[in-house]
Amino acid sequence: MANLFIILFHIFFPGSKIFLPLDLPNRHSIDNLKLTEIGNFGLLRKERKNIPAHLHTGIDIKRPHENYSDEPIFPIAKGMVLSKRTDGPYAQLIIEHDFNGKYFWTAYEHIADISVKAGDLVDPFMQIARFMNREELNKYGWQFDHFHFEIIKVKPQPLSSGPLHPERFYKSFTLECFSEQDLEKYFFDPLEFFRENLK
Q1: Residues sharing a CB contact under 8 Å with residue 171, sequence separation 6 or more, in sequence order
Q2: Are 58 and 148 spatial neighbours (Cβ–Cβ below 8 Å)?
Q3: Residue 47's pLDDT is what?
Q4: What 3-state class would DSSP assign to 32?
Q5: In whole angstroms, what is the distance from residue 172 CA to residue 25 CA?
Q6: What does DSSP assign to residue 51?
Q7: Residue 6's pLDDT is what?
Q8: How open is the CA angle 93-165-82, to the nearest 5 degrees?
Q9: CA-to-CA distance for 172 and 106, rounded, in angstroms?
Q10: Which of 18, 113, 108, 125 is nearest to 69 (CA)?
Q11: CA distances to 11, 108, 163 from 149, in Å
Q12: 9 and 16 in contact (C-beta within 8 Å)?
């Protein structure tokens, strides 16, 4: 089914550059994009154990179908994988994009079954990961029944990789936004970005 979807988009939208990261009937419209109750950009997230209060730096996207086995996640544009983290519910990909000569970065977190590695080139018709399945949600918690998505304005922070995370070369500014100024400095509001760039 996903392959047919990809073929149809190549036929009908050959010049498109930005897509939604989900398997939707129209990946050029945010009309069918659903967020969790606390998944909006800029919401104040309360302090939790080892996590300070901060503003939400992305959006938390619900799975588009009742598919709890292999619901796919795609990149929103062509790019290169900069960083990969694979530790359970905090698994993450960061992808660098060159869009009309302007760079931006996207992050996909709380994902599973990552199918790419650092250095890989990707496009919006390639599955890069999937939503967690029932078994993983039962293990890690149903609060992860979504994926966290960010669009970053400045290059993510470099990290020294180690044996636990051999391909984790960068991190986002996710837990460093304590004011509207911080949020504006580091992140695009994904919904506004999509409204401006989906064609």
Answers
A1: 83, 94, 156, 157, 159
A2: yes
A3: 87
A4: helix
A5: 30
A6: B
A7: 43
A8: 35
A9: 9
A10: 113
A11: 27, 5, 26
A12: yes
Q: According to the model, what pLDDT value does residue 2 have?
A: 44
User: In which element (H, E) is residue 157 found?
Assistant: strand 157-158
Q: Do 114 and 191 form a contact (C-beta atoms < 8 A)?
A: no
Number of other residues whose CB lies within 10 A of the CB of residue 30: 15
Residue 28: both structure tokens together = 């050029």
For residues 167 and 138, what is the distance between their CA atoms, to the nearest angstrom?
A: 27
For residues 111 and 127, what is the distance between their CA atoms, to the nearest angstrom? 12
Instruction: Please give the chain's pLDDT, 199 residues, in tens.
Output: 444 444 444 443 344 589 999 999 999 999 999 999 999 999 999 888 888 899 999 999 999 999 999 999 999 999 999 999 999 999 999 999 997 788 999 999 999 999 999 999 999 999 999 999 999 999 999 999 999 999 999 999 999 988 989 999 999 999 999 999 999 999 999 999 999 999 7
Q: Output the six-digit token pair for 155.
A: 């290059």
Would you give the DSSP letter of residue 82?
A: E
Exposed, middle or buried, 192 (CB in 10 Å: 0-12/13-18/19+)? exposed
